[in-house]
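Dear colleagues,

For the upcoming journal club I promised to circulate an example of a predicted protein-ligand complex. I picked one with adenosine-5'-diphosphate because it came up in last month's discussion. The inputs are reproduced below in full, followed by the predicted structure.
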Amino acid sequence: MDRAEEVNAAEGGPLFALRGVGKTYGEGATAVHALIDVNLDIVPGELIVLLGPSGSGKSTLLNILGGLDRPSAGEVLFRGASLTTLNDSGLTQFRRKHVGFIFQFYNLIPSLTARENVELVGEITDDPLDAAEALELVGLAKRLDHFPSQLSGGEQQRVAVARAIAKRPAVLLCDEPTGALDVKTGVRVLEALQEVNERYGSTTLIVTHNADVARMGARVIRFGDGRVRSVEVNADRAAPSQLVW
Ligand code: ADP
Ligand code: MG
């Protein structure tokens, strides 16, 4: 941690603070305002569900939080330090060290086993979780030596979850993680995410257009046309097994 991070942590500050964040793609008449004046604090360890129709800016927000993209206005602070001022290599370091991504399509390497796919992460991080332990956590202890083609979609996505958590990231960014799955397998994936969130305290953002998934979030943020439309605290959270879509 640098000085700003230490002060922020000592003060119990947010993991992320977004201040007036905007993102515009293109220019002039064809400009798309993907994000407009987004202000948000994300607390360490919370599980947030981000809802919104297609094109409302959800992926853009995750990509900016994860350092895959930069805002065109405003500022993003991570543990009190600005991400916006980092150069490309600084942003890459941030991503490697602190961010786990889970996408709709699992992006596993077909020629590597489940265990090997997860082990790859160990090569870019200091203190990785043991691959077998990460796979056990997502309920795949018996699938360590299977190749992706020998696993169902839900199992492949759980390998992707194991891979993302193996670096013990401060934040897990999940973009439509159940988008390609049926309800039953999707629920297993959401259970794995919740388990990781509870066990390791990884701050977790789940983007979805399945409104029912909101019931498992500690907070629910609704997006519309690039803006935050509402933020709700969910006092009565549902277990993933109670969700339907
Ligand atoms: P969501 O994830 O909620 O579906 P996105 O964040 O992907 O929405 O997109 C928000 C808006 O920004 C959409 O209108 C989309 O077409 C536009 N957009 C996203 N990425 C790009 C890009 N790289 N270039 C141009 N427009 C983009
Ligand atoms: Mg999207």
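Two points we might discuss: The CA atoms of residues 56 and 224 lie 5 Å apart. Helices lie at 3-10, 58-65, 88-98, 114-122, 131-137, 153-165, 183-200.

See you all on Thursday,
B. R.
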